[in-house]
UniProtKB/TrEMBL annotation:
Residues 302-318 have a biased composition (Polar residues). Gene3D superfamilies: 1.10.287.1260. Residues 324-333 have a biased composition (Basic and acidic residues). It comes from Actinokineospora spheciospongiae. InterPro entries: MSC_TM_helix. Residues 259-333 are annotated as: Disordered. The chain crosses the membrane at residues 30-48, 87-104, 116-136, 156-175, 187-208. This is CmpX. Keywords: Membrane, Transmembrane, Transmembrane helix.
Amino acid sequence: MTSTSTVAAVDFGSGLSQAWQVVVTSAPRLLGFLLVLVIGWFVARLLAKAVNAVLERVGFDRVVERGGVKTALARSEYDASDVIAKLVRYAVLLITLQLAFGVWGSNPVSQLLGDIVAWLPRAAVAIVIVVVAAAIAKAAKDFITNAMGGLSYGKVVATAASVFVVGLGVIAALNQVGVATTVTTPVLITVLATIGGIAVIGVGGGLIKPMQQRWTRWLDRAEQEIPRMREQVEANTARRQAEQQRAAYYQQGFAHAAHGAHPAQAVPAGPPRQSQYPPEQPYGQGQFTQDWPAQPGYHQGTIPQQPTGGRQVPQQYAPQHFPTPDDHRPNRY
């Protein structure tokens, strides 16, 4: 009975010692795991904010929106710079998790995270390929639309060219990340081979006469359309130059207004104007005197004429003096 209790006591004590040893061994690793997670979380957040600020400062959103990405993000609450910042943040968090789980040694989670982190550069290159392809497609569509905007089939050709370029970019991006390569590569090869085969067989095979007739019609149509296309391009160029000149004129006017200066405008000097009246005379030279007859109630004397600039005043408009009641009162002084 005593030996059995002694063995149980010994086993219990060894279990406690082993558990304590595990705790003592794992505690530093757990602290390191938590410390790596906290530091990585702060670093990911700060780095995402820095990337977003830098991209907005350099105008990344405007450049990307020209490539058609604006349409894809129209209903999203994030713009292009926000998406890139989020991707950077999650990439840093994945690297942080890989480092944190690496504290525990080799484990399946660390291996999985390592594979994902190794795949991130390929994903970044694929995103760049898609953005560049979208920008090229947008530029090609605008160019074809401006060059063939006056034609009935101009928009169709521009849309087809844009879709073709975007499709090539998507296929290249999928091949870059290694997704569905067994599907995208044969599709691309089939499309290119079909186009080449149709061209070879149609031109060099049984479609010689029909193609000859079509080529004749196409060449005639091209001769008719080329002047229209040239006129369309010249009209677009002239309109663009006029808009640039108008904008430059407005900017120049705003600049002069801001500096308080106005460009002097030369006014052509015309011939001297001649007055239809004789030159004016100084005051006093045009005076004349007039004697009035002595009548009862009137003062006899001279009335000076006001200056009239050398013009004679008719007699009926000469100033006159009318009698008043005071004229009959004797002068008491």
